[in-house]
Automatic annotation (TrEMBL):
It comes from the Eukaryota. Pfam families: PKD. The lineage of its organism: Eukaryota, Metazoa, Chordata, Craniata, Vertebrata. The chain crosses the membrane at residues 236-257. This is Transmembrane protein 130. One of its GO terms (cellular component) is plasma membrane. Keywords: Glycoprotein, Membrane, Signal, Transmembrane, Transmembrane helix.
C-alpha cells in the first residue's frame, strides 16, 4: 500500500467511528417510556395498594407512575404528566403522582399521557397509558330489618340491609346465649344485591347473637346483633280467650233470665213464670191455656184459676 492509500484509510476511520457513535446514541433510540400505574387508597390510618383495578368510591386516592429506567436514560429528562381520570377531571403537572377521589361508583377509563424532553436537540418523546378502573362503594353499614319479636320453635325470617357495592360475600352464624363456638364455622353466601335474608328456628329462649362478616373487593366489615327469644305462649292465650268467651255467654244468659223491673219507683227483681190454666166455658167444655205473668217479690200467683160459682 502506498502513502496515498494509507491516508484514505486514516480518513475513513473517523467517519466510521462517528457513524457507529451516532447509531448507538441512546437518545435517538428512545421510542417509549416504560413504566406502570400504581393505585393507593387511604382507609383511616392505613394505606392500601389497589393493584387489581378496583377502587372504593369517596375515598382519597393516590395514583403514581413508576418509571422503569434501569439504564438511567431519563435521569436528566424533564417530564410532563396529563391525567384524564375518565369522570371529567383532567389534571396536569410535572410530578408522576396525582391525588383525587371518585365521587360515584361505576366503570372509568383512566388515561395518562407522559411527555419527556431528554435534550435540547432531541425530539420530545410522548407515551399514553390507559387502564380500566372499576369503582365500588365501600361497605358502610349492616342493618337488621327483620322482626322485633322472636319466639321459640317458630320459623323466623330475618332481613339484613348491607350498604355497599355488590357482589359481596357474607359469612354468618347464630350463637346460642351469645357464646362463641370455636369449632363451628360460619356459612358463606354470595350476595348480588343489598339485602340478605336468613330463615332460622330458635330452639331455646334467651339471648341469641348473629355474627355477620361482609366484604367486597374494596372493603370489609364485621358486626354482631343480639336477639331476645321468648317462649311461645300461644296455647295459653287461646285457652284464656275461650274461657273469657264462655264467661261472657253465661253472664248474658243470667242477665236475660233475671232482668230488673221498675215498679213504684223502686227496682225489684222479677222472673217470668208460665202457669197452666184450666178453663171451662158455659157449655161445660174444658180448655187448658198458658198464662205468662210477672211475679213480684212478696206476691203469690195462684197455680189454677177456676171460673164459676163456688
Amino acid at each position: 500500500m502506498d502513502r496515498k492509500s494509507s491516508a484514505w484509510v486514516w480518513l475513513l476511520f473517523p467517519l466510521v467511528g462517528a457513524g457507529v457513535a451516532e447509531t448507538t446514541d441512546p437518545w435517538t433510540h428512545l421510542e417509549s417510556i416504560a413504566g406502570r400505574l400504581v393505585f393507593y387508597q387511604m382507609e383511616g390510618n392505613a394505606t392500601r395498594v389497589r393493584n387489581t383495578g378496583e377502587l372504593a368510591s369517596r375515598v382519597p386516592t393516590k395514583t403514581t407512575f413508576e418509571r422503569f429506567d434501569p439504564q438511567k436514560n431519563f435521569s436528566t429528562a424533564k417530564f410532563t404528566y396529563t391525567w384524564d381520570l375518565g369522570d371529567g377531571q383532567v389534571i396536569r403537572g410535572r410530578e408522576p403522582v396525582v391525588r383525587y377521589r371518585y365521587s360515584a361508583s361505576g366503570n372509568y377509563t383512566l388515561r395518562l399521557k407522559v411527555g419527556a424532553n431528554v435534550t435540547t436537540y432531541s425530539p420530545a418523546i410522548a407515551d399514553v397509558y390507559s387502564t380500566e378502573v372499576q369503582v365500588l362503594d365501600a361497605i358502610k353499614s349492616i342493618e337488621l330489618k327483620g322482626p322485633s319479636d322472636y319466639q321459640v320453635s317458630k320459623n323466623t325470617s330475618l332481613a339484613f340491609h348491607v350498604d355497599g357495592s355488590p357482589p359481596m360475600w357474607v359469612c354468618w352464624r347464630f350463637l346460642t346465649d351469645c357464646v362463641a363456638d370455636e369449632a363451628a364455622s360460619c356459612t358463606l353466601t354470595a350476595l348480588y344485591g343489598n339485602t340478605l335474608r336468613l330463615n332460622h328456628t330458635f330452639t331455646a329462649a334467651g339471648v341469641h347473637c348473629v355474627d355477620i362478616s361482609v366484604h367486597n373487593d374494596v372493603s370489609r366489615m364485621q358486626t354482631s346483633f343480639s336477639l331476645y327469644v321468648r317462649n311461645n305462649n300461644t296455647h295459653l292465650i287461646f285457652i284464656l280467650s275461650c274461657a273469657a268467651v264462655l264467661l261472657a255467654t253465661f253472664s248474658f244468659i243470667a242477665v236475660i233470665a233475671c232482668r230488673p223491673r221498675h215498679r213504684h219507683g223502686s227496682q225489684v227483681a222479677t222472673c217470668s213464670n208460665a202457669v197452666f190454666l184450666k178453663n171451662q166455658d158455659a157449655e161445660g167444655q174444658s180448655a187448658i191455656v198458658f198464662n205468662f205473668s210477672d211475679v213480684a217479690k212478696g206476691e203469690k200467683e195462684p197455680l189454677l184459676t177456676q171460673h164459676g160459682t163456688q
